Amino acid sequence: MRQTPLLKVEGLSICFGLPGASIEVVHDVSFELAPGRTLALVGESGSGKTLTGKAVMGLLPRGARVSAGRVLLQRPDGPVDLLRQSPAVMRQIRGAQVSMIFQEPMSAFSALHTVGSQISEVLRVHGMCDAAEARKRALDMLAEVGCPDAARAYAAYPFELSGGLRQRAMIAMAMIGAPRLVIADEPTTALDVTTQAVVLDLLRRVSRDHGLATVLITHDLGVVANMADEVVVLRRGMVVERGEASAVLTHPGHSYTKRLIDAAPRVPESIAVHAPPERDDILTVDGLSKTYPGRHRSFGRPASPVYALSDFSMRLERGRTVAVVGESGSGKSTVAKLILRAELPDPGATIRFNPRDGQPMDVTSLAGERLTEFRRKAQMVFQDPFAALSPRMSVQDILTEPLVIHGLGTRSERRERAAWLMARVGLSPDHLGRFPHAFSGGQRQRIAIARALALKPELLVLDEPTSALDVSVQAEVLELMGELEGELGLSYLFISHNLAVVAALADHVMVMRRGRVVEEGAPDCIFNDPRHPYTRALIAASPEPDMHRRLDLTAVACGAGEPNTWPEPFGYNGEAAPQLIEVAPGHRVRRAA
Amino acid sequence: MEHYVAPDRGHDADLDRQALDRADLDAPTRVLVWRRFRRHRLGVLCLIILALGYAILPFVEILSPYNPNDFDENNIYAPPQGLYLFHEGAYVGLHTYPTATVYDMETGLVKRVTDRSDPLPVPVLTTCGEPYHLFGFIEGRFRVICPPEDGELFLIGSDRLGRDMFSRMVHGARLSMTVGLIGVVVSFTIGLILGGLAGYFGGWCDAAVSRAIEIFRSLPELPIWLALSAAVPVNWGPVSVFVMISIILGLLDWPGLARAVRSKFLALREEDYVRAAELMGAKPSRIIWRHMMPNFMSHLIASASLSIPAMILGETALSFLGLGLRPPAVSWGMMLNDALNLSAVEIYPWLLMPMVPVIFAVLAFSFVGDALRDALDPYS
Question: Would you give the DSSP letter of residue B80?
Fold first, then answer.
């Protein structure tokens, strides 16, 4: 017998703008959700997944309006249409029957109140119990979502908690009113991958224990595979495919779903072993460290210094790719800044850049002419394509600017070069007269790559070049980078937080944690034979669109914590880190001997 | 749930890659800003009003029926006169009625009595009165509206010397409206240079400028204004005094602007496109002029348009206290100087009329500034 659905969305359409001149952003979306099940709304940016979720909560942004459809929530006294309730009724429903988990817990909590008071507030506004009881229930709930010290978390302000703990508190707040439906809007997107694995597991456990129905809004098919019973794939506001998660993920019917699944980065099963290199290094880095002094205060002692990067060494062979992988705070972006001389390293470091023709350069001591020459040969691609292009310059100006700075070519030669660059990164030269804001993220990133190529550099530093992009676009951009590397003889330093993303491009992978490399080696060593608990945690935590490969939480738990929680012989306290030890040719792990 | 698959129309990767994501934003930023600004009805209206206002400033002589310093000892404190088209139900053209001064024996006050039986035709678009010098050298007597042949035309009354308030108000606009512009240019120049230095170079330069800003902002504004304007030599001509007053206003206004410039510079320095230009090897001057300036000029224009009203009010306040502009120059503040005498205001309330254009000008600049500020980020 089929269960009565708890939530039934029928023919939901949402428009922006006034009647008559409106743009429909969600078109005829229907799905239903039975109690206790998890349904994932999957789509890329602009697919309307978040708007659909907000419409259910009655939280549409200003200017958006439901133009058709019903959202029926089953209540004990029969179904009610959430779209046609008065604000007062909706307030009763929100928190008590339907609640929401937001992407950014920092902005979803008020910074002026303690986490605990905000959680127990849910109970008080619904008049469910008195203050003392509310406090007790909030503490219980915080303990249930895995806060190690519930009383401390209760009394803490949101900024005192780590990202993972904040998201746990967010879940506690969503759960405290004992709702029957939770809408989770990208609940783990802002988190590091190891934290994401833990929070996803928590969400799954909590919704199972409480018999909750969950609408999970996400762009990540890997998350879907780990969480969802049912999937609705959205594209440009329309349902592309809908069904049981196992059916959709293993036998996708629509070409768009297939593309999404194919584009998702995976940790490779096996990797061909690279031929041992004949050493022609374009970049040699030794003993690179960066300490930021504590902030100067007007009075009193300065704050203690921050060790962003400690004793980093690497070799980048010409025409190859070294990937530096780590979570936030690992020091990976500092590596990029130091190598490109955006900042100076602590004394004692050597960075040797060895161009194809010409003298080797010591990057740390370059000045004047030589620095300009280095700038010409080493370029950078930034993470956020929306911030990397000046909104006041046309694409033409953006692409010719590097040539103008270095005084290369005549006006018409520069224009030709710009057109060639556009074509090379897969965009039509007709776009040259346009401005960045007309383009999508992927297109902008292509333009940013074209700009970096304008000076015919030999070394490209890619700082998370795809992490702001949609999955299908990410796959295309990675493919483009692969082509360019071979064709133009480029060497890449690829910085990413995602191990799976670098798998296709990297010739050498370095895994970083808290300013130190913990493991490095060829991709086959790292992916097939990871030795360090942290590398293992990273691999285990990265979700993939495969129903049979669930997140391995024991591995995550073992390696994801601070260095002092790692098992022997890997763990260490403070700055007393052990050395990197070669465990196999080219494969080095930081562990005690 | 049964497995539903939408009709599959296939997918053209190349076409997808070229398609503009935001075709609605396919234009240069200034066009986008203008489009967004246009949506702000009140802002557009105020912009039109201000543009018209500034457009007529060179031609105020033609618009006013009298010259600003023409006085008429027979018509001291004449009340506002109406303009009419119909006399006793019949159309007789633009006309007004003569007023006579009557001495009230009981109260001892001078009263003005309007004679409703005798319409005086008001000539329009003709020559009359004392000659004026348009732009300082074109002599003319042509005016849009003239007083009737044997009568007076005080549209909003006359002051203690029998000068026409309306003509003086129109002439006063010239100084009162431009004092803000000159002041803003001065404060802009200082603010831009100091704020830019502080924001771009940081370090001790930033510290010095920031402290200077704080000190300037902590000074009590009014006494400093008063002291500085009192220091303007008495024997200076009206034009020099006017320029001096504008500069004084600008000198005291720059800290706010410098602070805005500094914080904008600090924010822009962290932008990836500025960092990209640095990593390309661009020199600081190129980074400032090509990358940072275009991106914050609009913010500056918005903050400038919000600080012009403060200048207009400042001039009004100074002249009201008798320390601003000096006769024979005319400004709104100077006209209000007559309103210092409370009993005069009580009997002749039209002395307060110059407040009306002050209020309108300040409001118009504020609305335009607000609309501009809203339009500055047109990319969403």
Answer: P
